[in-house]
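User: Earlier you gave me the apo prediction for this protein. Now I'd like the version with glutathione bound, so I can compare the two side by side. Same sequence as before, with the ligand SMILES added.
Assistant: Got it. Here's the input I'm using:
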Amino acid sequence: MATPFFILWGRLNSHNVKKVAWFAEELGLTYERRDIGGQFGYTEAYLARNPNRLVPMIEDGKVALWESNTILRYMAAEYGGERWFPADPIDRALAERWMDWQFAYADAQRLPFLSFARTPREQWDMAAIEQRVAACAQHLTVMERYLGEKPWLSGGQFGIGDIPMGVYAYTWFSLPFDKPEFPAIADWYGRIKARPGFAQQVMIPLT
Ligand SMILES: N[C@@H](CCC(=O)N[C@@H](CS)C(=O)NCC(=O)O)C(=O)O
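And here is the structure of the complex with glutathione:
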């Protein structure tokens, strides 16, 4: 086996770890993923490098880096080149804004996800879940409009701007709650699902 480019620390049932694992596949980088966080707990050695007590973190021999979207930007710049990290600041910013936008979306989707994946059904608070699903839908209306004009969140071609919301879209489409339909998002998601790295690293049972 080729020497791994980097170590990816983090359990794969984390949305934020999935982003990095998927992007590594897109870039064709070899890496070794090590389970840590959640049910695996943390080691003192890990916490010395990432005191947030969160995953993911990568180590590539040059840097130990945490914050998933920062990791994506770093990987694109360091290992991807112009294809993944355009020199034009406007092209780059128009794609990258969807990465920051994703965090507010993730807040809205947290309760429906945690209820479905990690809470016994009899404890579901359906009123609260429905309220949060409606909040997700409100965010997605903005994305729907954009994807009616551009094929990808990154613009003309798939890029790092699509990665964070791609991961959260898998969860959205997997949730068994009543949800409005978003045709442009469904079309984009169909193309995302066809990417081998996504199928491999993201489309795993929600736990
Ligand atoms: N903003 C951080 C958030 C990281 C985060 O919240 N990670 C969650 C998993 S998605 C976590 O580490 N939870 C605690 C744990 O797994 O021990 C990032 O994007 O990397």
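For your comparison, keep in mind: The two ends are 30 Å apart (CA to CA).
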